[in-house]
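Standup notes, protein team

Yesterday: finished cleaning the Bdellovibrio reynosensis set.
Today: Translation initiation factor IF-2 structure.
Blockers: none.

Input for Translation initiation factor IF-2:
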Amino acid sequence: NNTMKVSDLAMEMGLKAPQLVKVLMKNGVMANMNMDLDFDTIALIVPEFGWEAQNVFKTADAVAEETAFGELNAEAVIRPPVVTVMGHVDHGKTSLLDAIRNADVAAGEAGGITQHIGAYSVKIEDGNLITFLDTPGHEAFTAMRARGANATDIAIIVVAADDGMMPQTQEAVNHAKAAGVPMIVAVNKMDKPGANPDRIKQQLTELEVVPEEWGGNTIFCEVSALKKTGIKEMLEQVKLLAEVAELKANPKRSGTGIVIEAKMEKGKGPVATLLVKDGTVEVGQYIVAGTMKGRVRSLTNDKGERIQSVGPGLPAEVLGLEAVPAAGDKFDIVKDEDTANEVSTLRKEQAEKAATTPNAKMSLEDIFAKV
Ligand code: GTP
Ligand code: MG
């Protein structure tokens, strides 16, 4: 529990409770002896008695991090980049993702049947993998960002060549900028008669998204999701950006990452699509996703195949959680059931606290000093 009773705090400082109540009142806290004080209030009040408050309460994230296991200091290795596709309604996000999946060498090998799990990895010609998040909704992106756990490395902003920049194009650009991720502009529907890529470059330049050929640093790729033209070239650009970013992770430690989407499914129970950011998730391990705990009962990859483990930069569908977590939630693999209970209980308390704190938008780190 992350609070302390007035009477207990008074005792700690060798005071009588009414003395403490008086000072609390003076500071605008309508206190009584049995009231629970949060850390911020305690930190504010104790200097009046010559004390200094130190927060020894642990956050869920701190406990998860402290109890991480495996080869924690193993050398980091290159992982697949995670790409989010964003853009205005009807500009072709879904079609582009379909076209990309069509270019998947591995899918071709497996007979071309891919299962939709909200995130998928594509093997490009040189054998490298790129992971795409099939949740282009701005809400999911914002939720992830708000939780300080942005899972995206690169944003692809789709703009229809015959339509031009639209309000949601601007929003998408702002999201990418705020998240500090590099972007690629996919000028889509190039097959259409009215396609005018120069106009789009002009419009985006006004948002300070300047094409390379105009002296800026943003790559514009002219594509047609419908005719599947320009897709390979665009994937090549994604690969180059990823190489520059040197995205690395340690697959030898316990897994941690983000919930991309989650739902309740008949016969399966809670089903969550995880994106592993670091480490490896294995069947049988204990997990906490958001406030929900569980044990990994099964893992399924984006090709619909059962797998025993999933590493950094890759998505998988997990079964075995006690309930459905929220999209954007952080997840951690923890060493045992006790730790799973502890982390999930702490997260629940923190979530409750955040919900009843006036500025509920504040991050948990703001509310609970990091240990
Ligand atoms: P929302 O999810 O509703 O925001 O749309 P979206 O951005 O996912 O667009 P979607 O892929 O559904 O495509 C919208 C329409 O544009 C569909 O009718 C597509 O067939 C069409 N379209 C997408 N890409 C192309 C393209 O390259 N050329 C042409 N001619 N039409 C396209
Ligand atoms: Mg769509």
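Follow-up from PR in the comments: The first strand starts at residue 3 and ends at 5.
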